[in-house]
Design brief:
Elements: E1 7-11, H1 15-27, E2 31-35, H2 38-47, E3 52-56, H3 64-74, E4 81-85, H4 91-100, E5 104-107, H5 112-129, H6 144-154, H7 159-166, H8 170-184, H9 189-198, H10 202-209
Parallel strand pairs: 1-2, 1-3, 3-4, 4-5
Length: about 210
């Protein structure tokens, strides 16, 4: 999984509410992704972890409570989550949301400026509690062979060329590439190379991939 620079995930089955929140956040300088169900939200996070999640409590199918619990189990407590609700507005609802794992709880309707203020406070706090990312591929849990394959991808080699360089079959290289994409939380080789560049992995991998004398 990767952490985009400024992306906020907005999860609500009310499309007009999602669009309103997205407009507010984009005017404040953030980028947004929108999800209408809990299942869609979890799939978005599997692809790329956002900086913060704005999550409606009542969703069709998988509830916001379940989504929050799943995110805490899979991503951890460094991901800020703000619950929003238009019908669960009592104090015990807010307490329940916070106990489940949300960082904040807003009831609808709310002032857009208040949303931005709370969001920015959450992001500031998150910077202090997010675990430091190691600037090498071990941060993604890769094996030494996967690091070699990623390094050669970064160097621009094709799958057959990587197979020849490492004395592997193209099918085996393809399997390594699919595992690399899964561990990095990206959907293509191009995205993997881009993430490697963004995380400063290129020099590390080139040194691994270069043959020794």
């Amino acid at each position: 999984m990767s952490f985009p620079t400024n992306e906020i995930l907005v999860v609500d089955d009310d499309a007009s509410f999602c669009r309103l929140v997205a407009d507010v956040l984009e005017r404040a300088g953030y980028t947004t992704r929108l999800a209408g169900t809990g299942e869609e939200a979890l799939e978005c996070v599997r692809q790329s972890v956002p900086r913060l999640v704005i999550l409606d409590v009542n969703l069709p199918g998988t509830s916001g409570y379940t989504v929050c619990n799943e995110l805490r189990n899979t991503v951890g407590h460094h991901l800020p989550i703000i619950f929003v609700s238009g019908d669960r507005t009592e104090s015990f609802d807010r307490v329940a949301g916070l106990l489940i794992g949300a960082d904040d709880y807003l009831t609808k309707p709310f002032d857009p400026d208040e949303l931005v203020a709370r969001l920015e406070r959450m992001l500031t706090r998150a910077e202090y509690r997010r675990p430091p990312q190691r600037r090498d591929s071990d941060a993604f849990g890769m094996t030494p062979r996967e690091r070699e394959v990623l390094g050669l991808l970064v160097d621009g080699l094709s799958q057959p060329e990587i197979a020849e360089r490492l004395y592997l079959s193209p099918k085996t290289v393809g399997t390594h590439i699919q595992r690399i994409l899964g561990k990095m939380g990206v959907g293509s080789r191009t995205q993997a190379v881009a993430l490697a560049a963004r995380e400063g992995l290129i020099e590390t991998h080139r040194s691994v991939a270069e043959p020794t004398a």
